[in-house]
Structure formats: structure tokens, C-alpha cells
Design goal:
By secondary structure, this protein is of the alpha+beta class. The protein is built from 3 helices and 5 strands. Strands 1-5-4-3-2 form a 5-stranded mixed sheet.
Length: 103
């Protein structure tokens, strides 16, 4: 596995994530797209510490590779479940109902 460069590379190819993302309309779609745009190319250390993202471990969920899952804020209302694999932030799901990200 390649050594991480510390820059975030987005992977939004999860069927669950894409299904919800493609169903968004209007302001919600714009906010999530803007949030994704802001994440692209950030340093990983910034992701961990940027207060607006609210990067939080979801201790009862494991990623497909067995690592920790995290919740992060893409808009005031919408959260995503992700995990880190090397430089990649792999998106698993998108949650317009903020609280459902923790279920």
C-alpha cells in the first residue's frame, strides 16, 4: 500500500452514497456538492481538526476493511459515513436525516 501523502482523495462510488446523493435536489444538492468540493485536496490533519466538519468516530460501526467508521458534516443538516484508507476518504452513505448516520 502506498504511503499516504496527507492530501484527501474522495471516493464517492458507494452505491448507498450515490443513491442518496443523486436523489438530492435544490439547496441540499448544492450544499453537499459544495461540502465535497471543500474536502477535495484538504490535508488529513485539517479534516481531523476542522470544527465545521465535526469528524467523529462511530464506535459501533466498522468499515468494509475493518477500520473505524467516521461521521462528518457535509451541510447543516446532512452527514456522511466515511472511512480512511491511505489517502482515500471512502464514502459509505449519506444521511439527510442527520441522526440516522449514527444508527
Amino acid at each position: 500500500m502506498a504511503k499516504p501523502t496527507q492530501k484527501v482523495v474522495l471516493d464517492i462510488n458507494s452505491p448507498d452514497f450515490l443513491g442518496t446523493f443523486l436523489s438530492l435536489r435544490g439547496p441540499e444538492l448544492e450544499q453537499v456538492a459544495s461540502g465535497l468540493g471543500q474536502l477535495r485536496g484538504l490535508e488529513w490533519q485539517t479534516v481531523y481538526t476542522l470544527k465545521g466538519l465535526n469528524w467523529e468516530a462511530v464506535s459501533h460501526l466498522l468499515a468494509p476493511n475493518g477500520s473505524k467508521m467516521y461521521s462528518l458534516r457535509l451541510s447543516k443538516k446532512i452527514r456522511a459515513l466515511v472511512y480512511r484508507e491511505a489517502d482515500f476518504m471512502r464514502f459509505i452513505s449519506l444521511h439527510p436525516d442527520h441522526d440516522s448516520a449514527y444508527e
